[in-house]
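Priority: low. Protein: BTB domain-containing protein. Input follows.
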Amino acid sequence: MNKSSFYQAMSSELASESTMLEFKLQKFDLARSQHSLTERPPYRNQHHTQKAFETMNILRKQNLLCDVTLVAGATEVSAHKTVLASCSPYFYAMFTGFTESRANKITLQGLDGAALAILIDYVYSAEIQVTEENVQTLLPAANLLQLSDVQEACCEFLQAQLHPSNCLGIRAFADLHGCLDLLSHCDTYIEQHFVEVTENEEFLALPANQVAHLISSDRLSVPSEEQVFEAVMNWVNQDLANRESQLGSLMEHVRLPLLSQEYLVQRVEEEPLLKGNLPCKDFLIEAMKYHLLRADQKALYATPRTKPRTPIGRPKMLLVVGGQAPKAIRSVECLDLQRERWLQLAELPSRRCRAGLALLDGRVFTVGGFNGSLRVRTVDIYDPVRDQWSQAPSMEARRSTLGVAVLNNQIYAVGGFDGSTGLNSAERYDPHAEEWTAIASMSTRRSSVGVGVLNGMCTYLR
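Result:
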């Protein structure tokens, strides 16, 4: 019997067995109850696709049944058109509608050879290792080949690497390759870490338009506007010959009216680069005039430069400062609500309990209180960016169990207990002038008083 006759005989035998099997099943079905086998769900092999791709990958590596060779630089990668087209819209379009559909060797211009090899491995294996060494070539290659899941993996990797020293570079990379989610994450990170970012070389290398874009943001997180002013001056002085002409356009975005009068007079007005710059002098005069206005007049003369920055997006924290009388302690803790855990922060400069707390310009003011022996007038400021404490001018009166509130960017300290009697006096702290001023007293002495701000007024509750 020759080979052809053998195959014909085998086919005939298999067909006969198939007919018998079908007949037996039909008889079996007739003997069953009303429930038909067709109601059962189809059998599904969960590992079929994976096994098929594993086999195709073995064939590819052995160069079996491959019908295309991809070329990128000096790298050549063999593959199967059907597999490539099923996983990549780029290859699907190429192999179903372009002249390359009939080509056996295709050169891909502008593609890194090593990245191509890694991506073709991914197409067959569904696995890829993104590293610091390959991410900058993988992302543009994945963009070109329209492998969106690899794109996403690269962006997630870069997002996890964000640091004040590299965030501006990663932002530029995300912008270049149209990674909008990564770009948004970079912008938020830069705004939240502005002070640290401006201390790195990437900031000093930015072009003027990007510096202007950054410092114009309402969402910058800075302890005070001084950091923005100093960042601009450092950037200009980095290349004074070419950047001095940009000073006026940049200073337009620095909110000089939010600086203290002392800083305006001693630092800004005395800056040599500003003295001969007419636009900068106009901005300085505007700031000086703003400080001369009464609190109720300032709203009438509002400009973009008088608007306080309102950083958003930082994780919410609950701060606990000092102890409870009579136990005065230096301990400071915060509850990270996002991670649900307590963190130990820098200790108070001195023991404290029953103090008032206020949040102003991104810093926490601890006002008055009891040190275990005496009621105190002292005020300490906590900087959450640097995890450091500093001192502010003391109040005029000793106060514990006082009420504290912030109104019109000033701190109000109300009532309290001085060690012998409850107080009806009140005072106000101006962070720009860095001084406390007595204001009208309450009609009633109040200790352990609550203070709230409503409709532009302080309301006292006890």
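Residues 206-301 form a domain with the Serine Threonine Protein Phosphatase 5, Tetratricopeptide repeat fold (CATH 1.25.40.420). The first strand starts at residue 68 and ends at 72.
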